[in-house]
Amino acid sequence: MRALLLLLICCSTFRVPAQLNNWDPTWYPTDSTLVFHDDLDYYLNAYSKTDIKEMRRQVSILRMNFDKLMRQTIRELRTYSEGGGMVPRTHDFTLPKAQDGGTYSLRENDGKIRAFMFGSITNPPARYQMERWSQLVKKYTNEEVQLFVIYGTELHPGDKKKFKAYPQPKSEYEKMAYAQEFAQLGKIPVLVDGLNNATFDAYGKAPNGAYLVDKDGTLVFRGTWADSRKMEHMIDTLLKWYKAGKPKGYAAQ
Length: 253
Prior knowledge:
The protein is built from 7 helices and 9 strands; from the N terminus they run H-E-E-H-H-E-E-E-H-E-H-E-H-E-E-H. The chain is of the alpha/beta class.
């Protein structure tokens, strides 16, 4: 997965920075919810050229064997892009919280809209999204909405000067310490996946994947890369739908 991000960062510099128009923001109603179009593009197209340039500075690609990089990247693209590595449904989990030592269960919080992304301290896109998602936490303080991050696997462990101090953790204690430091990048709850990365695996091994679960526990969106703007649009849409009484055939207002 490390090689995947490196290639995506390199390729993304040649793409036009995207807004919502790189993804279909409409939805389709079912008997019980609104389902949004997945955003499974494997390009890092939610960032400006300046953002991409800064992320490229944080990782090292030139010191890697290029042939090995390409072979590994192709295998990972086949497995994980376009949803290939995930059964498209909600996967329950109960995980410890980095900030206060408590636990959080997805199923026990039915009745609220839940949005979450995966991240780690050596994951440049996740680091960028921390502040942006923290703004969403503030926006939805008085709504039945929960946003949080699941601390998954290290994307660039020990890479270059930026992440030299963060090799792949060898214990639950070490991973929790990384997560606690990562949590300081924003004001959003951070849950910590186990050392076996079971939750990360269940949701398709997308290093900065984003997911939206409705109040009934139905997965209504999945994205390869977290984008706070898209998540905000979907949460706002769901909130309006719930407040309108969950009408069938709901259309944009």
